[in-house]
Hints:
By secondary structure, the protein is an alpha+beta fold.
Amino acid sequence: MVQKLVEKFEKLYGNGGEIQKYFAPGRVNLIGEHTDYNGGHVFPCALTIGTYGIVRSREDRVIRFYSANFEKLGIIETSLDDLVPSKKAGWTNYPKGVMWAFEKRGYKLTHGLDILIYGNIPNGSGLSSSASLEVLTGLIIKDVFGFDVSMVEIALIGQDSENNFNGCNCGIMDQFASAMGKKDHAIFLDTNTLHYEYAPVVLENARIVITNSKVKHSLVDSAYNDRRNECETALKELQAEVEIQTLGDLTEQEFETHKSAIKDEIRRKRAKHAVYENQRAIRAVAALQAGDVKLFGELMNASHVSLRDDYEVSCEEIDILVDLAWKIPGVIGSRITGGGFGGCTVSIVENDAVDTFIETIGKAYEEKVGHEAEFYVVDIGDGAYKIA
Length: 388
Ligand code: GLA
């Protein structure tokens, strides 16, 4: 496939020069949802699907972008002197944002690039296609210009570009998973300190199955930013009573003792989710490390209930998928994953039950919702890399 992309690149931009190839993956989060901007823990892993980039340096300051996913848009041309967000730049606002964030840190991009992009993450599925594009761009810039930046810094640069160039106030999880992923491992990341540990995902006789609801409700970004604001206000109210830096500093018991400091019922529910979900993530990782996959699954289920009832980021279609999954023998755990309001669920399913899972849920979902779901039995892949 990469060879085909190179051929396409040469057809578009001409032959010659040195052509480089890169890949950055999407991610799925196993547990620890909406905790990454609350100083809590997350437990994502990189997928083997993601975004490919084919690149060649130019001598001028022109940047040409082409996406094999949006062929009709053709070549989109810009310049290093025009790194400002604009509606007409469309998807290229993501790579442009990363270039902007490098320059902001004092890394000077001294010449232009021809870039071809191709992604195989299903569009709008909540599996971090935009973070993978950001991390891909970060790796390209680091490599082409020889900048001495770590992959963790590339993740932070990606987040900065998303927050301050593209206007979504996301946490660090997605970019971190795409930059730092490791085959067959999930990343246990403390988002407060960025301390991380790789945990082998040993599921014995089970697989990770992602189910795409194929719905994406509008207002995702604004609802996401609302949740963030609610948590920030709740934190301030709690800080009047207890000395904490983030909601992730609290245990469940401490939260229960001090929760009356939060003056609004909705905000109390949001903060409760952040505190409990963080503790759940910590417990879930310990369970997995101890080989207790069953407990890991139970904590995934509890995570869903909390995201549905307290954080209110689920939706009817996702709840249907999770309810169906919970009823199937051999399903160890199932929950919504990612930002919410549509997108995907993640389930751990015993090998013997995978076919039944796909068949039963596929049929029932289509009957109830009126369109098909999609299923991906996934492997855990490496973080972003240069292709030799
Ligand atoms: C989105 C954001 C992440 C994280 C998740 C929810 O994917 O980009 O930073 O907050 O939602 O866990």
